[in-house]
Amino acid sequence: MTITIHDLRKLPGSYMPGSAACPGCGATLAFRLVSRALGPNTVYIVPACCFSVIQAPYPKSAISAPLYNIAFAAAAATASGVYRAYKTVNKDVNVVVWAGDGGTVDIGIQALSGAAERKEDIIYVCYDNEAYMNTGIQRSGATPLKAWTKTTPAGKREMPKDMPMILAAHRVPYVATASVGYPFDLVNKFEKAKNIRGFKYIHILSPCPPGWDFPVEKTAEVGKLAVDTYFWPLYEIEDGKLRITVKPRKRPLKEFIRLQGRFRTITDEEIDELEKIVMEKWQFLEHLEKSERVF
Fold it and tell me: Does the CA dihedral 67-73-74-76 come out positive or negative?
């Protein structure tokens, strides 16, 4: 089933008014879409991250679905236990980890790798705002090269970890990337994932206005530009076969970079170098798309 805009309007979501999110928050936009695609028969496991605050302080909540807050490192392990508990009582429920990049690519990677290795029947979602935003904008393993954070004032020197490919190397049934700038690509990947048995991993680019330093009304535009400049390729790997799901007409990387204050220290020459890296990644994905299997 392919979800259309008419379907999306009719589907009930789990996000209610009155959250503690920042204006223009990409994570809340992503959750609105995802909760509609997954439906009410879903339990969310949330480690320490922005969303722990967004959902609102106890005893109130902006999320109508069952949601379990857990320690930074334990989300995937907790989701494994929750799924098995439901399985014991013969209930078929979507068990979903909703984690930021810090709790995924850094602090939570051990439990995540273990759950993927065991092929646990859960959906692990990383909403990636590319830094530790909840604690004041510190760099994470997902922060892009040259991006400013409070711990990389001259720009990050290292490339980010490629978590989708790391998870694909575990030979799980489904891995995908998504962006809030392409909402129907996003929701249809969740529609597919919820019907696949085994471990599923979806990595969503989640633009953050205060952390990336752009106007709050530009979230969707930034998310779309990331894809249109090939900075954030959209693809899925199903049973080892890679497919690029959106092939936009290429736009200059400078359009994406110059819209964000976090790249304030980058020069035009460095943008050109970064664009070469971006295009090498795109060409590599095109090569993999022609291959029989990724791993």
Answer: positive
Q: Sheet harboring 42-47: ordered strands across?
A: 67-70, 42-47, 94-99, 123-128, 200-205, 174-179, 235-238, 241-244
Q: Based on the structure, what is the number of domains in the chain?
A: 1
Q: Is 15 contained in some domain?
A: yes
Query: Residue 86 falls within a domain, yes or no?
Result: yes
Question: Residue 50: left (phi > 0), alpha (psi -120 to 50), or beta?
Answer: alpha
Helix 183-193 with 26-38: angle, nearest 10 deg = 40
pLDDT computed for residue 18 by the predictor: 84
Q: Which residues contact 234 (CB under 8 A, 6 or more apart)?
A: 177, 178, 179, 182, 185, 227, 244, 245, 246
pLDDT at position 1: 63
The answer to whether residue 164 is domain-embedded is yes
Work out the widest C-alpha separation in the chain, in whole angstroms: 59
Residue 21 scores a pLDDT above 70: yes
In this prediction, residue 11 has a pLDDT band, given cuts at 50, 70 and 90, of confident
Q: Which pLDDT belongs to residue 69?
A: 93
Whether 54 contacts 34, CB under 8 Å: no
Q: Mean pLDDT, the chain, as a whole number?
A: 95
